[in-house]
């Protein structure tokens, strides 16, 4: 019998009730009251994982993939119900993407040299217990990506999740441990605390048994991790610009940009946050956005109301607006006559406009006019704020694309496609939800969570 909307909602509510923090059952896999206990349990599990073969680790990861597929819809609804952010359908797609595409043990490689003086191997080994901080924007996806990659590399992981997504995170961590146990592996390959706080985060970051920290979130948490004196991988903020010049397929650019901007209500850090368009094609671009792509053209009055609603006087975002859809945002400012298919709010403005210069994580897309390509490039560089995270371009001029790519110097650059192509949706490559632009690792995978070791056999095993 097919599962209808009401049945799924009842299932989600039942799961959420069971995961109520105050009633969290004792012995839930990977969940502890104290951070020190969570770290100790992960340390014991790491001693087992370290000695497992790659094949054994891959068996666990295979079961993780199956469980993610099976729970993709429930997890997506749980995340939206708990955080109030995002789009259920898109989160389901992201869960399936993670299950299908996150690299496993095949990402762990060995290189070798041989010569007159013998044989040298360079192998990728684990760090041990990794400490990870995760966001509320992509709560379960980040847990899945990190756990699979870190386990493939031979590590275990202790999470300090965002408090706004703790129930979703606990459910995901429990599921990862169930996969390990089902495959004959140890419990507590991933652990966390029932009530994550700044204090539990500090304990994790400064614990002597954690040599590597991975932060996925805003600039504050990344700065804290990189300031604690340990090796840190920082996946911080971005404000990705999308440049459109006069050589582009303007109609397709409009479709790609709006699709990317509205995916999961603009929560992904790689999503288009603003557009810089050459003046000669800007009006055409906006025409296609409004007439074919479900965009609402905001008047000056609506723009001003949005500024007052989505951020405070200091420019801090209103949490109640982050990850909401366009129709909800318009209703918040009293607009109720928008077309039924509205999915994005657009307007033309200067690059200094607060809805353009700020990373909103909402389907609000400011469009900046540029006199020519060089002016557009200059404005895009300014708007990206030096995060070196993501940038996008729509152009058929290879020389301009090359110039843009070199100047932006971002971890991700998407050319003539929607931003999510960078994660394997309609583009080549593996997905991840920890994109370490701040520290230079880029899109993280199992190999990222290893350290290289050189093993030298002198005057032997060279048989040529």
Automatic annotation (TrEMBL):
Name the lineage. Answer: Bacteria, Bacillati, Bacillota, Clostridia, Lachnospirales
For this protein, the record's NCBIfam families field holds: PRK15398.1 (NF011927)
Q: Which CDD domains match?
A: ALDH_EutE
Q: Which InterPro entries match?
A: Acetald_propionald_DH-rel, Ald_DH/histidinol_DH, Ald_DH_C, Ald_DH_N, Aldehyde_DH_dom
A GO molecular function held by the record = acetaldehyde dehydrogenase (acetylating) activity
| Keywords of the record | NAD, Oxidoreductase
**UniProt name for this protein:** Aldehyde dehydrogenase EutE
Q: Which residues form the Aldehyde dehydrogenase domain?
A: 33-427
């Amino acid at each position: 019998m097919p599962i209808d909307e009401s049945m799924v909602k009842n299932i989600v509510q039942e799961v959420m009730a069971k995961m109520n923090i105050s009633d969290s059952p004792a012995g839930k896999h990977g969940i502890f009251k104290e951070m020190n206990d969570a770290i100790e349990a992960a340390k014991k599990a790491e001693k087992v994982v370290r000695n497992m073969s790659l094949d054994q680790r891959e068996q666990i990861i295979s079961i993780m993939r199956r469980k993610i597929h099976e729970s993709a819809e429930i997890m997506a609804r749980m995340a939206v119900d708990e955080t109030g952010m995002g789009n259920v359908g898109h989160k389901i797609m992201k869960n399936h993407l993670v299950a299908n595409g996150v690299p496993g043990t095949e990402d762990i490689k060995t290189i070798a040299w041989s010569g007159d003086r013998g044989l040298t191997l360079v192998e990728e080994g684990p760090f041990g217990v990794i400490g990870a901080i995760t966001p509320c924007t992509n709560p379960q996806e980040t847990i899945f990506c990190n756990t699979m990659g870190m386990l493939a590399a031979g590590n275990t992981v202790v999470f300090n999740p965002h408090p706004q997504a703790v129930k979703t995170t606990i459910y995901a961590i429990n599921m990862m441990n169930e996969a390990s146990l089902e495959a004959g592996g140890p419990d507590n390959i991933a652990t966390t605390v029932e009530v994550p706080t700044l204090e539990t985060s500090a304990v994790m970051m400064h614990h002597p048994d954690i040599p590597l920290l991975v932060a996925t979130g805003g600039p504050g948490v990344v700065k804290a991790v990189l300031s604690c004196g340990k090796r840190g991988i920082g996946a911080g903020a971005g404000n990705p610009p999308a440049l459109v010049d006069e050589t582009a397929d303007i109609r397709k650019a409009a479709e790609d940009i709006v699709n990317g901007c509205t995916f999961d209500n603009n929560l992904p850090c790689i999503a288009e946050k603003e557009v810089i368009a050459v003046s000669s094609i800007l009006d055409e671009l906006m025409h296609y956005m409004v007439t074919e792509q479900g965009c609402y053209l905001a008047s000056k009055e609506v723009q001003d109301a949005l500024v007052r609603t989505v951020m405070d006087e200091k420019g801090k975002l209103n949490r109640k607006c982050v990850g909401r859809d366009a129709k909800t945002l318009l209703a918040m400012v009293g607009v109720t006559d928008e077309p039924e298919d509205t999915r994005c709010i657009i307007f033309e403005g200067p690059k200094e406009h607060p809805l353009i210069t700020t990373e909103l994580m909402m389907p609000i897309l400011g469009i900046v006019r540029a006199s020519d390509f060089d002016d557009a490039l200059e404005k895009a560089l300014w708007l990206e704020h030096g995060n070196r995270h993501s940038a996008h371009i729509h152009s058929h001029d290879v020389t301009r694309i090359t110039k843009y790519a070199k100047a932006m110097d971002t971890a991700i650059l998407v050319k003539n496609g929607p931003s999510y192509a960078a994660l394997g949706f309609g583009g080549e490559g593996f997905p991840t939800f920890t994109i370490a632009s701040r520290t230079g690792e880029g899109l993280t995978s199992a190999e990222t969570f290893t350290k290289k070791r050189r093993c030298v056999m002198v005057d032997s095993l060279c048989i040529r």
